[in-house]
Amino acid sequence: MDENRIENNLNKIKEQIPVNMELKRKLRKRFKKNNNWIKRTFVGMAAVACLLTVFYSLDIKKIPDTIIPKVNAADLKIANQMSFVDIGGGVNGRITEYNGTIYMPISDKGLFEYNKEGFKKISNREINYVSVSNDGDKLVYSSNGNIYLLDLKTNKETVILKGDEVSIYYDEPSFSPDENKIIYTRKVISPRETHGFDIKESSLNEIDLKTLKSTKLADGSYGSFIKGADAIVFERDNKIIYKDLNYNKEKIVDDGRFPSVSPDGNYIAYEKSELKTDKIKDNISVKESVSNIWVTDTVNFATKRQVTSNISNEIAVEDWLKSIKPSDEAQTFETNGLYSYFDPVWNSGSNSIFVLKNANVDTGGNAMRLMKIDISKEKISAQDVVRRYLQAFVVRDDDFARMLMKNPPQLLTISNPHPVGYTILSSGTENGKIYVDAELNYAYTMESYYSIEKSRYYLIPNSNGYIIDSIKNLSKAEYINKNGSLYMAEGQSNVKLFDKTDIPKQYLPDGDYRLGPIAYSSKTNTLVFTIQNTGKPSVKLISYELNGKKFKMIDSINSGGFFELKIDESGRYLAANYITAQNTAKTYVYDLNDNKKIDLQTLIKDTTIQALNSNFWDGKTLMFNVNTNHQYLYYKYNPEKFEISIP
Amino acid sequence: MQNDFLDMYESYFDDVYRYVYFKVGNRWDADDIVSDIFKKAYEKYRNLNASPKSWLFTIARNTVIDFYKKEKDIAIGESLEQYAYPDIFEDKFDKEAELNCLKKSIYSLQKEEVEIINLKYFSNMTNKELSLILNKTEDAVKMKSYRIVQKLKKLVNICLEG
């Protein structure tokens, strides 16, 4: 490398050092406005904060919550990622979120409000794109080429822009930070001869909600205003573009699609696909487009952070390589990564990103899921890394699980028995290496089987906090029914816990019966089991305390059966998945200390529930899902407070 | 006078900001210091009779020193150098090996050499402007810069070889 190249590279590095253009603009404005500004008192660390407060008091009514962002995008940490909605068939629109309520358009069904209260329809319209105002009081959305405003307090809907339903369509609306304007895309389309259409023009415009006057801002789509700046961010030709509206100047932020600006104005999230070409042989090659979500600063875009961890779809490539026949012709396989990501959207607190994620290799059917990425400014502790890894493992967020591992396997596969809970046991150091011990519980649906695997997770520090370096299995205990007797098997030892003839007679049903699902708590050394009457839908739920060898009846129901049990980390709460005589799945949560139970369906209001199933215990929090006619929505239940929330 | 000042502000704000940001390593301190620099420049602009950029950067360097003395509670006589130039690139996802090696190599230089890189390459200063604020001849600055680039070249090559 010669000196010129060093100098050229130094210039490239220069471009990566951020300049706060917002500060530049504000200071300039002040110099222009008031020569006496310099006589004002502002000293020390608070100087800029005070200064900008003065500026903001002159410019806009509200003082912004965060005047100076504290962390560059590259320094942001990933605190958690979790898929929490399995989306059924049909194309779904872009979502929006305000303070724990997600507004979710569902194809052919309308717009739904998803929060701790339930999943409630608020509009019948077929909505393509929805955005919430900064105060959470209004929604703006596009439907069939028109743009509507919905006042959530009065439920009054107003048409803002009406397309001609032939060639002019209005789409992708969102509010300006002061809520006086809406930025939107105007599309001019022309139908093709057979089917589909071409977009002839796509321009970004703003409409003043008081005067209803529209102004063109740029050519492109997917526009957003930026809080605290006279600028917009949008997409054009697979590029993310920033435009300073004062100077009418555009700057390319990065390659990518679907830009979303955080409500605090500090960051842009977007999707970027990187194309890799792998030449296997002279005439055989694989082209792969690997999608990921990125975050960059709105100030000069100097730092970037990749917040998802997609990988190559090696299974599809291997399958193709096996299937091809020798040929002199050039053969190319085009594929995507393991996942495809779409439409990142920030939450109202600017600390989480919602993103649609499609698993390109999936056996489960519902491949599209809504995932939440929690962003933190603090490094993540070793215990939290293991907890989040176990959660990702259970939920099958392979991308996130891989992000937490130094040497991840290609795919984390889960089969029956499937994980139903995990507990962090302890942490410490071994030969100077940090470790966390944790327990992972597995169960078979409908079977008398429960197992507890203890593992030691060794961690090493990294820029996010810690990463799992290796995993050592410590022990595995299995609780199994053999011919009506329950055994505990660990290594070579096989201990009979009790025989069904040991069960007090008054607990046994009349007629034939069999042992059903079981669960075990190592914390209380208690086994919970079920006795199902084989002749009729009647079931008993019984606990057996191993130290005192005591049986205790927990519940007796005469109209269905349990098909899965799982106990929380304290051993106090039991989640029991239950199927009614009418074939409806529901979940009871029992407090084993005082024999109380709650039907989780009773906590969800205004919602058509087809089925409700508990998924797993995240320590003391139960994750469960609600099937609302093709969508599977996750909820969290806190049994100590009888409260539910969305993840 | 005000228009002249605004011209200077427009011309050099980005250079000053990068200089300060690279030196202090974070945006909130950089915002604070840069505001202070231009406030001082505005106050003193009437007295300007030298090269505007050298003059502005002399204020910038002194303001950074004042910042460290005040905020970091540095004792008199203690070297300020140890407080400057934290690695701002450590968490970057840069796929270009050369650039990554160059970034690492910059932090292997002596602080005085990093300062020259910062002024010359990140703040766009000419050798002449540099000579004025470093109190050296233009030739001496040119020679010093050349040696630093040579040193970087060696460090980058070692880094690339792995």
List keywords for this structure.
heterodimer; A: 647 residues; mainly beta; 14-stranded mixed β-sheet; five-stranded mixed β-sheet; 11% helix; 52% strand; globular; B: 162 residues; mainly alpha; 0% strand
Uncertain segments of chain A of ≥5 residues (pLDDT<50)? 37-70
Number of strands of chain B: 0
SS strand fraction of chain B: under 5%
Averaging pLDDT over every residue of chain A, what do you get? 85
**Helical stretch tally of chain B:** 7
Shape of chain B: globular
Radius of gyration of chain A: 29 Å
Q: What is the share of helical residues of chain A?
A: 10-25%
Biggest β-sheet description of chain B: none
Structural class of chain B comes to: mainly alpha
The helix fraction of chain B, in percent, is over 70%
Please explain how this structure is put together.
The complex is a heterodimer of chains A (647) and B (162). Chain A is mostly beta strands and 647 residues long. In chain A, strands 1, 23, 24, 25, 26, 27, 28, 29, 30, 31, 40, 41, 42 and 43 form a 14-stranded mixed β-sheet that branches. In chain A, a hairpin with a 2-residue loop joins strand 30 (485-490) and strand 31 (493-499). By secondary structure, chain B is an all-alpha fold. Chain B is built from 7 helices and no strands. The radius of gyration of chain B is 17 Å and the shape is globular. In chain B, 37% of the residues are buried. The model of chain B has no long low-confidence stretch (mean pLDDT 83). Chains A and B meet through helix 1, helix 2, helix 3 and strand 21 of A and helix 1, helix 2, helix 4, helix 5 and helix 7 of B.
